[in-house]
């Protein structure tokens, strides 16, 4: 079952580090309402996620992420990414959010929807199930570097983990814990290397 998250783990993204660097974002309910308004063309099995990413963004990071999603993900992953692209595109098409989304982190947010949520919760349920929609929005905001309006980091993290489908499934929760342990080891190694480099620089 943990194979469902293989593409996500392969990205090597560190959730703990992300939580420590969030800036204030829009309310969960505002983003959830926008997600619920996703137009049909973004939901089609035939949606071209790479072309859509190029239409929505000028930078190449999203196109590269979209290409990985097409190559590695199932149709559900592509639909999930397309719904994330709608959230970014909607600011121009129907109006801005109360707090702008972080476009430079868009690729990371799209990968989270495609590889972390969509393999476990079909994007069709993101529209029909309010609790799963809340999970999706919280995942999206987290990986877009945004703290839901009206919540501090402790509250936001608690609500996210309560909704998180990965943590609700035993085998997946263990796989996530193993991944987070690897990320923690890498953080400690990076910190040690940085301190060693600084000590060498100061001694010269």
Protein described:
This is Phosphohydrolase. It comes from Mycobacterium dioxanotrophicus. The chain is mainly alpha-helical. It has one domain (2-203). It contains twelve helices and two strands; from the N terminus they run ααβααααααααβαα. Strands 1-2 form a two-stranded parallel ribbon. The longest helix is centred in the C-terminal third of the chain and has 34 residues, at 170-203.
Key descriptive features of the protein:
mainly alpha; two-stranded parallel sheet; 2 strands
Output the helix-strand order.
Answer: HHEHHHHHHHHEHH
Structural class by secondary-structure content: mainly alpha
Biggest β-sheet: strands ordered side by side in the sheet: 1-2
Count of DSSP E strands? 2
- The tally of helices reads 12
User: What is the mean pLDDT?
Assistant: 88
* Biggest pleated sheet: 2 strands, parallel
In angstroms, what is the radius of gyration? 18 Å
Strand content: under 5%
The level of helicity is 55-70%
Structural domain tally: 1
Unreliable residue stretches: none
Organism: Mycobacterium dioxanotrophicus
Protein name: Phosphohydrolase
List the helices and strands and how they pair.
Elements: H1 6-10, H2 15-19, E1 23-24, H3 28-36, H4 40-43, H5 49-56, H6 60-72, H7 75-93, H8 106-117, H9 123-128, H10 130-143, E2 146-147, H11 153-163, H12 170-203
Parallel strand pairs: 1-2
């Amino acid at each position: 079952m943990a194979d469902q998250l293989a593409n996500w783990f392969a990205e090597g993204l560190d959730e703990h580090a992300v939580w420590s660097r969030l800036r204030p974002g829009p309310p969960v309910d505002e983003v959830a309402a926008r997600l619920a308004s996703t137009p049909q063309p973004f939901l089609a099995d035939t949606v071209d996620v790479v072309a859509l990413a190029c239409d929505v963004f000028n930078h190449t990071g999203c196109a590269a992420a979209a290409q990985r999603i097409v190559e590695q993900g199932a149709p559900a992953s592509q639909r999930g990414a397309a719904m994330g692209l709608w959230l970014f595109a909607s600011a121009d098409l129907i109006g801005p959010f109360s707090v702008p989304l972080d476009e430079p982190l868009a690729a990371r947010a799209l990968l989270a929807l495609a590889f972390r949520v969509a393999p476990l919760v079909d994007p069709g349920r993101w529209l029909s199930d309010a609790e799963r929609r809340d999970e999706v929005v919280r995942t999206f905001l987290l990986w877009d570097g945004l703290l839901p309006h009206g919540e501090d980091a402790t509250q936001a993290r608690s609500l996210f983990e309560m909704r998180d489908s990965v943590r609700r499934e035993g085998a997946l929760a263990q796989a996530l814990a193993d991944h987070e342990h690897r990320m923690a080891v890498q953080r400690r190694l990076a910190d040690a290397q940085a301190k060693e480099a600084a000590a060498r620089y100061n001694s010269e």
